[in-house]
């Protein structure tokens, strides 16, 4: 709009200038070549236009800044902000963990502060009162999820339910998930799954005890519980348990468990280009390449599962109870976009 205004002013200026010159010449009944319409001095015109542009730009910046200052007070910001990288250098300390660094900053600057991490402004809250304020009182303001490399490559470009932006699609998926996965009726229907998985782990522990001549045995509790949780989730969502009896001998079990662990690790990985976008083409720590590889493997695995469910539904032969993928397939069509919705929601 600035450019359009300048063009209008310039045309009006030239028109008035030429009109005045021609009128004076005709009134004297003589036309001189020196009095023919011509453009004003170019340096003077350029300087005038530049001053106008600068004035309107400064006026806009002043108005926006004043409006922001009047809407909400500025949160405390730690000193030491550097050009381009901002406060990123404050988060890299080999002697301390990341949560310890945030805790030390919170002790100095309060439960809510702003950090400039590269090109991103980040709000850091470190008290339950502030967390409650963000996720209950002001939940609509925080309803959107940030877009980054992980959501782009691992979450089907932010279409996965847990990473989708707030809108009609997300509300519809939340409604389906709440009714078909988290309702009391559905949780009660999964009681048999929980009982069978817990029973399988108890039998596995008993077998280990017997094999050790009924003497105490060492257990990897973390591995045991992770396998239990993983199997309960996969059987609830896809109707298939991959890790049985604490063993990962099956190739499909190893592949699925490995891809899932890699995806969870990459979702929490630090990607330089998320904060310095101009470095994306370098892929400095190799996370983007790993995300693309894991995303391809997961897409193949979940695609096979969806195709198997479609085949069983068409044949009329169903192994076991209906699961979450069956519910999703009953709500969507048979095209490629429908499969994408099922995969993103199930994952």
From TrEMBL:
GO terms for molecular function: heme binding; iron ion binding; monooxygenase activity; oxidoreductase activity, acting on paired donors, with incorporation or reduction of molecular oxygen. It is found in: Membrane. This is Cytochrome P450. The keyword Ligase does not apply. GO terms for cellular component: membrane. The keyword Transmembrane helix applies. InterPro entries: Cyt_P450 (IPR001128), Cyt_P450_E_grp-I (IPR002401), Cyt_P450_sf (IPR036396), Plant_Cytochrome_P450_Monoox (IPR050651). Gene3D superfamilies: Cytochrome P450. Its cofactor is heme. It holds the Pfam family p450. PANTHER family: CYTOCHROME P450, CYTOCHROME P450 82C3-RELATED. Its main location: membrane. It comes from the Eukaryota. The chain crosses the membrane at residues 42-64. Keywords: Heme, Iron, Membrane, Metal-binding, Oxidoreductase, Transmembrane, Transmembrane helix.
